[in-house]
Each structure stands twice: as structure tokens, then as C-alpha cells.
Give the backbone structure.
Amino acid sequence: MNFTLNTYHHLCSTLAKNYYTNLTVNEYLTTPTRPQKTAVLRHDVDRQPSTALRMARLEQQLGMKGTYYFRFIQGVFDEGFIREIIQLGHEVGYHYETLSKCRGNMDEAIALFEIELAAFRKVCPVYTASMHGRPLSPWDNREIWKYATPQQFNLSGECYLSINYETMQYFSDTGRTWHPGKYNIRDRVQKSETNVLLSSTDELIRYLQNNKDESVCILTHPNRWSQGPFELIVSAGQDFAINQIKRILQLLPKR
């Protein structure tokens, strides 16, 4: 039951009860003096925006807010869901994958980034962006930042590049585990040492209960967090299949 909405409710309640200051990604990047113990809730909406809305409602009921990064693809970039999440008090960002879409053509990828971001901004304000890993693609979408900067798109930052993760613990549910390396190909941050290794959500909750003064960034993929038994079985099956492909890719020689 690691990845149910009931478990996520417990996780968010733990943050509230243990006096974390909850900030969106943009707030974290633009606040000059932040409290020592902050919690940034980041959500990558890879598919099923309806599940993202469920999560957003749950957080709002607990007095919390997150940053929801939507992909610009059919079935995910849904103006209705985006606007409703904004109305709940959350932030929406751009989950870009333009280098993969352009099959490695850098000039086209940067131009497409600007076009897709403009489409987002017709729906809502967008202050930050987050790379979509696309583990089955040979291209790392973060490579565009070797030739551009977030500021030239009037962004306050990019999740992987603009946050100093030496000053906070980073946890991601990628691969249906909180362990940073088991099934994680690209969702990694720059950090000299990872001294907190967890697998289950219960372990993460215990860490949050015992943590005295460290800030945390918690990344979830809402489609992974199920409401009922059927959804749980389907989601777990999808993750299992994708994880087996990732295992094969990790064994292949690096290009």
C-alpha cells in the first residue's frame, strides 16, 4: 500500500504536524531568506491529469500546496484540469521534453520549448520548468540548458538546475520506490552525497517525523498514487513492466 492516496494523505499530514514550511518551487527559488525546515512538493504529471487533480484537492484540504508539471502532449495538457489545480492554490509548471521530441536537434528543441511554453502561458502563469526524463529516449532533455538559460524564457528556474540540493534532501517515487538508484535513469539531482536511503513510503514518513532541521523536496508522479484496489493493480503492473525495460537499458553500454 506504498502508493495510495490514503498513504499520501498520511505523508502530507506528517509534514504539517512536524512544522515544515510548505513552499512551491517558484516560492523556494524566489524567497531570499527561507526557513531552515521547508518542504517543496513537486508533481510530474506524465499522464492521467485526473489523478493529479485528486492529489491537488487532498493537499488543499490539508492547507498545503504543490507545483504540478504538465507535459505538453495530448491527454495531459488539459486546460480544464490545469485551471482547476491553479484555483486550488497550487502552481503549474512546464514539464518539457523537446529534445526528445526533436530527436536531438538542439535548435529545433529550443524553438519548440518557446512555442510550448507560450501555449502554457495562454492558460496560466508559468514560472518554472522541469525536465521529463523519458527513460526510453536516448536524449537527455536537460541538454538544452547548455545552449540556453531559463531566464531567457522569463522563468525563475528549472527544477534540476536551479535548486541547490546540497542544502536539502531530495526524494523521488520514480520506479515505484523512494530509493534513488534502483530504477532511476535520469531523475537525479546534483548532490555530493546521498546519506538518506529509503525504499517505502512508510520509511519516508518516519524520516519526516524524526527530521529536525533539514529541508526536503518530494517528487511524486500522481498517476502512481491510486484510490482503489483496481487502480493499484493497474498502476503497479505498468510500473513493473517499465522497470524491467529500465533494467535492460541500465545493462547496455553507454552511448
About this structure: The first helix runs from residue 5 to 17. Residues 56 and 85 are 6 Å apart (CA to CA).
